[in-house]
Specification:
By secondary structure, the protein is α+β, with helices and mostly antiparallel strands. 28% of the residues lie in helices and 33% in strands. It has two domains: 33 residues; 70 residues, mini-chromosome maintenance (MCM) complex, domain 2 (Sandwich), CATH 2.60.320. Pfam families: NusG_II.
Amino acid sequence: MTIAEIIRVTTLFDRILLVVLLVITGASIVLVPLYLPRGGQIMIEANNKLLYKLQLSDDKTIEINGLTVEIKAGKVRVADSDCPGKVCVKQGWIDSGAIICLPNRVVITVDGTPTAPKGGVDATT
């Protein structure tokens, strides 16, 4: 099917829906980073235990549970991992939110991202 055929078979409602979805997507790309708080502190947990509490301003490289965590220029990333898939490595540099490596059971949280309450249910229990 060519683009001309697709346009011919779409209704006015289809076009309005497409425009609304594109506007919502564009607005979220612009607004979400504005409303996510910038972090100042990094918490690194492994096996549900807090191992490190560091500042984003500290330039460091940490080896933990098969991960190489790098903090530089106010951002953090997993530089290398021995896990399959390496999803945590592909996430790249962050300055808010979290990086989670499920195979190695490591959670890197930047500032106020909520974690499971002590004794509560989380994804690994």
